[in-house]
Amino acid sequence: MDHASTTELMKDAFRRYPTGVAVITATGSEGPVGLTASSVASVSVAPPAVSFSVMGTPSARKLLRAPAFVIHLLGGRHAELARNFSLAGGPRFTAEQGWATLPSGEPLLTGALAALRGAPMHLVPVGAATLVVASVTDVLLGPDDGRLIYHARQFVTAPLSPEGT
Question: CATH code for 3-157?
Fold first, then answer.
């Protein structure tokens, strides 16, 4: 199988695989920066650590230079916000979206399911992407308002069932 075929087949395979959605934010020299990510994963609980990957976009390059960032795990009411942060030039950090600022300076989405403040431990270049392994220094839990899933290039919402699953 040639490289181009494997690349396209891998893209197709992951379009079929639903994932959770996060917006990762930081503060850089030019102000707040953020992007949508569907690659956030728990790495360890002792010590607390997560991973995510980003491509070489302007927002990603700024985020990778930040000493700390906040990973916002999104729920059902944040589909539009996820879309906005996934598009170049989309509205970001507006008052209507519910942003505040942490004492450490990073943007905080107050209504996120959870916000994980972290710092980079390892940056691993892989082709045009960078895999980030980060320590988690703070966890803020928000309201549990349903699911936001990225599947087949769409943000899909689903409410929680009465049993909470």
Answer: 2.30.110.10
